[in-house]
Design a protein that fits this description.
CATH topology of the largest domain: Mannitol-specific EII, Chain A
Strand content: 5-15%
CATH superfamily of the largest domain: Mannitol-specific EII, Chain A
Radius of gyration: 26 Å
Shape: globular
Helix content: 40-55%
Number of domains: 6
Number of strands: 12
CATH class of the largest domain: Alpha Beta
Number of helices: 26
């Protein structure tokens, strides 16, 4: 493929997926080195600068094709940021300041044309419609936001999350920095009061809460105090809370009552019992309030542990720490799912990448519990469960030593510590602590300080991701001058996968035009051969709506409810053209049917499957590889 053709393919691919992609994933798709990809991006940006588009590179996020912006000079990125900032300013006026605005007034204030303002308002409407329940309406007086109090507060919470994401602060490694973001939109005194009261509450009551949950709650608390200071009280008719959602919320209002009472003593505000319930809802969602474990939750936890013990070949049943963690995590998780409140997990994609076998095995396992719980799990919640189970897996491996520092002591620190214990042969012992407890440690006693916050400085300090990436591990190994032997790349072995292959379900030259036709054909064939029950494929498609199983390299690994699988089978499809699956276009599909009887095979199947998918040589010669596999089955 010539450089010109490759660059054209790069643009076409980015237009199709319309998502942030990593350099590694794009390089794999195009079959080039990361260095070549960076060179291609620079060339493409020079060639498309007059089209109103550019390929943006954002550190820690990835690469995306950005459209509808003016690119005429070296300040193109700055102009794009100004457009984003303008929409934020408009939303601030409409949502936070509760203003009624006109296009002319906005155009004069923001120094742009009325047409630009109209385009901005249209895009804001689209975003609000997709993510909130408030509406933008226009009349003779101007344009404003309308909605009930609950919906307005939820929209403001969403707005704050988007601003934090835009400023690349979503990994929460500096809460003081995030506080300054809030101060850009809310009264400084109000933000300081909310910050001081909440963190005092955390230290006194919930010292092991994740920064992830703390930030979610701080966001809600600031929004609520802002609305109360401006005399916007919560009305019972719009609470959107029922007694089916963990009973009467009055049982869980001690924390919210305390937080609002303390705020009212420092700010001029009044609040109602419904405001207490509103805050209680979010305290429950973010694990500030303890919910008693009901029989249903205990059955789910024990059932999941039992299933995954078989799937991974690991005895999770004896891990008392895992049971304790799940008993704390599951009740608010079920509560979130029942209320259909989606709490954004900033680590989902990283977890899916770093611990994909664990993630996808859990994703398959939880499908058998959804109907009993009357919920549907999304990828964010599966990723949180994966952290706990991956930590338990690492605990059972060989332990080895250093000091791990997290800001407040979080769930992911356990995963970080145990992964280090497994990876670092040079370490004799690994300890962990929070920033608040650091004064009790003599840092000179440690060869290395591994910190997930940038608040710690020193020559022996290494700052890492809270989930510890492969790059982090390699850097730590170099820092410790590890003498561990280099791992030798092994040939891909699919002996476990072969147990569940059938030559009639290996499609080497498929001609499906879209996902729907593929699913319909496979559904009919599998049902006729009694591999699945009639509704299996419905559960597979529903699972895709909750979280994608497709990858940027053109592979999809879909699965449905295991209770609807009669006989285990792995369907392999090589389609002659790429079809849109979920987020990506794919041409290699592995449909995983694992029956309850073959649960113990899951771990080995997933391990072999991802070894296969990651083998560039096999993926680039997939037809030839499948012909060999099919030939072996016929022998």
């Amino acid at each position: 493929m010539s450089p010109k053709d490759r660059q054209k393919k790069l643009v076409e691919y980015l237009e199709i997926i319309d998502e942030w992609s990593t350099v590694k994933d794009l390089a794999d798709v195009l079959g080039v080195s990361e260095r070549t990809l960076h060179s291609d991006i620079n060339t493409v940006n020079k060639n498309i600068k007059d089209t109103g588009s550019m390929i943006e590179k954002k550190r820690g996020v990835g690469i995306k094709l950005i459209n509808h912006i003016t690119i005429n000079d070296k300040d193109n990125k700055q102009e794009y940021e100004q457009i984003n900032d303008r929409k934020i300013q408009i939303l601030e006026m409409l949502l936070i300041k509760n203003m009624t605005v006109t296009y002319n007034d906005l155009a004069n204030e923001l120094f742009v044309s009325s047409t630009s303002i109209k385009n901005d308002i249209d895009e804001i409407k689209t975003s609000l419609n997709a993510n909130t329940r408030v509406k933008i309406i226009s009349d003779l007086n101007g344009t404003k936001i309308t909605g009930d109090e609950n919906s307005i507060r939820e929209a403001m919470i969403w707005f704050n999350q988007k601003v934090i994401e835009k400023k690349s602060l979503a990994h929460y490694n500096n809460m003081d920095q995030i506080k300054k973001v809030f101060e850009e939109f809310y009264q400084e005194e109000l933000v300081n009061v909310a910050y001081d009261i909440l963190f005092s509450f955390v230290m006194n009551n919930n010292s092991l809460l994740s920064e992830y949950y703390i930030l979610n709650t701080l966001n809600v608390y600031i929004v609520q105090l802002h609305r109360l200071v401006n005399e916007n009280l919560m009305d019972q008719s719009i609470m959107n809370l029922t007694e089916d959602d963990f009973g009467d919320l009055s049982d869980f209002t001690s924390g919210s009552s305390q937080l609002l009472k303390r705020a009212s003593s420092r700010l001029t505000l009044e609040y109602t019992q419904n405001d207490i319930k509103f805050l209680a809802k979010y305290l429950i969602l973010n694990r500030f309030e303890h919910i008693p474990n009901e029989t249903t939750n205990i059955n789910f936890i024990e059932g999941l542990i039992s299933y995954l013990s078989d799937a991974f070949g690991v005895n999770f049943k004896k891990d008392s720490q895992l049971m304790k963690e799940l008993k704390q995590h599951v009740p608010p998780m079920i509560y979130r799912l029942k209320l259909k409140v989606r709490v954004e997990n900033p680590f989902t994609e990283q977890i899916k990448s770093e611990y994909r076998e664990t993630f996808h095995t859990i994703s398959m396992a939880i499908s058998k519990f959804e109907s009993g719980l009357k919920v549907e799990f999304n990828d964010g919640e599966v990723a949180l469960l994966a952290i706990y189970f991956q930590s338990a897996i690492e605990r059972q491996k060989e332990h080895k030593r250093i000091l791990v520092v997290c800001q407040y002591g979080i769930a992911t620190s356990e995963l970080l510590v145990n992964k280090l214990k497994n990876e670092l042969s040079a370490a004799e012992q690994i300890e962990s602590t929070s920033v608040g407890e650091l004064e009790y440690y003599n840092l000179d006693d440690y060869e290395l300080i591994v910190s997930s916050t940038n608040l710690i400085k020193g020559k022996n300090v290494i700052n890492v991701s809270p989930l510890l990436t492969n790059q982090d591990i390699e850097y730590i190994k170099r820092k410790l001058n590890s003498n561990g032997e280099e791992s030798v790349e092994e040939t891909v072995d699919i002996e476990n996968i072969k147990k569940f292959l059938n030559k009639d379900y290996i499609f080497i030259n498929a001609e499906f035009n879209d996902r729907e036709s593929l699913v319909a054909y496979i559904d009919n064939k599998l049902t006729s051969d009694e591999y699945i029950e009639n509704s299996y494929m419905e559960t597979l498609i529903r699972r895709e709506s909750l979280g994608n199983t497709d990858l940027p390299n053109g592979v999809a690994t879909p699965h449905g409810d295991i209770d609807l699988v009669n006989k285990s089978l792995i369907v392999i499809i090589n389609n002659n053209k790429k079809i849109r699956w979920n987020k990506y276009f794919v041409d290699k599909i592995f449909i995983l049917l694992i029956s309850k009887e073959d649960t113990k095979e899951t771990k080995d199947i997933m391990k072999e499957l991802y070894s296969l998918i990651n083998d560039k040589n096999i993926m680039s010669h997939f037809k030839e590889y499948l012909n060999e596999v099919k030939g072996d089955l016929i022998k």
